[in-house]
């Protein structure tokens, strides 16, 4: 009986007629969209009009319809498809390798203090060394081909994943581990059922950071020594003064980044449903 | 289960968390370890549960020496101040955790686990929250889920470390009665740690007042109130 007073907040909401509710929800949704995307739309409209009327230099900022047309030609005509594929392959391979090495290693290092302490200074040193500064070294070692490009991206994406995983494991509440111990759970069970799930949100922070880094390094690597790929196309179009094509490649890169992030967010929602429930 | 603490002491490095203390807890009693922070009450509770081992002295369960028993062998149900609920598990899975963590040979059948969890949810008067996650619960509800999880393994005793510490005053009062009811229903020997003298006096059958790693007084609430044994006890309970 004594508990009932606390539970009054759990009751159902007040019912309203369905039509009015629907309308209200529609208006609310529209206002959310406006608030979220209004500024972006305004910016794009300004670009289009400004460029068409010559308020901004149309040779540097061609009107959006020209950029979209160049994008469409490049993709539908197949000219850019090869570049998209090779760019995806480079960043995808590197990212997959970084995930494949970074997460297991991070889980291991986070668990065992001695290992973490011994490796941390090296990691910090490597992390602070810009991957691009090391790119010439990688080229010397691995040649100017695909390997050095993939490796430089791998190098840069490894550290965010590794450090986020180590952090996630280390930050698991000691009390949770102690509680699991009181129930007689073995070390392996505690790792699998307590430590690992509790680290997942932190691991995802690392993954999302790494996905961004992967694209960043991809462009840099392709600008330096490639004859294919979206990064190369940005540079190449600029050399040839094909400004709409240049923006087309930039736009595709942005879309690539957005979709990578969206995929990770979706996966994170699925895996960490428990983390952001607050209603 | 009758618990006897026989001249237990605990050193952490050079500092003594507990000077030798002795205490007998009758079977089925609800006992409060009351004292300010640093009084050794939590250390004593952890030694009882097997989370710490004493530097010297013995712990006896029903007359049997239990000093060397591991935390699992002692079969204590724990509730921590922070509740330590597993955030990635539903309430149902949290309560079932202790049963699912058992080796296959001693693990109850799935249906039996479900039956027990349902019964416990009824006991804590939250029958409908099994599918929710801890982040969807109020502080008071979390505390009751932590209590249900501790009870699920059918423990021999219940050990609670500041079980009401993280709650606001109103909820705290309500849950006090809740703990009393659950204690009376299960008949489990229950020890809880608190720094709140109202809580200890209102809830416990037996209050153990501690300070600086020593036991100042052991007695029924009304006796301690009427006849405080030391100036410390008098000051502490009138504060």
Level-2 CATH architecture of the largest domain in chain A: Orthogonal Bundle
Oligomer state equals heterodimer
Give the strand tally of chain A: 0
Tertiary shape of chain A: flat
Quick structural overview:
Chain A is an all-alpha fold and 279 residues long.
Written description of the protein model:
- The complex is a heterodimer of chains A (279) and B (239).
- Chain A is mostly helical and 279 residues long.
- Chain A folds into two domains: 22-61, no CATH class; 75-271, MetI-like fold (Orthogonal Bundle), CATH 1.10.3720.10.
- Chain A has ten helices and no strands.
- Chain A has helices spanning 18-52, 64-76, 81-111, 113-128, 131-142, 146-170, 174-182, 187-225, 230-239, 243-271.
- In chain A, helix 2 crosses helix 10 (243-271), helix 3 packs across helix 9 and helix 8 runs parallel beside helix 9 (230-239).
- The two termini of chain A are 25 Å apart.
- The longest helix of chain B is centred in the C-terminal third of the chain and has 18 residues, at 169-186.
- Helix content of chain B is 38%, strand content 26%.
- Chain B is globular.
- Chain B has helices at 41-49, 71-74, 91-100, 110-123, 139-152, 169-186, 197-203, 221-226, 231-238, and strands at residues 3-12, 15-25, 30-34, 56-61, 64-65, 76-79, 157-161, 189-194, 206-211, 214-219.
- Chain B contains nine helices and ten strands.
- In chain B, helix 3 (91-100) packs across helix 4 (110-123), helix 3 (91-100) packs parallel to helix 5 and helix 4 (110-123) packs across helix 5 (139-152).
- With 239 residues, chain B is α/β, with parallel strands linked by helices.
- The chains are: A mainly alpha (279), B alpha/beta (239).
- The A-B interface holds A 2-7, 9, 173, 175-176, 178-185, 189, 193-194, 197-198, 200, 272-279 and B 49, 51, 71-72, 76, 78, 80, 82, 84, 86-89, 97-98, 101-102, 124-126, 133-136, 138, 140-141, 144, 153, 171, 174-175, 177-178, 181.
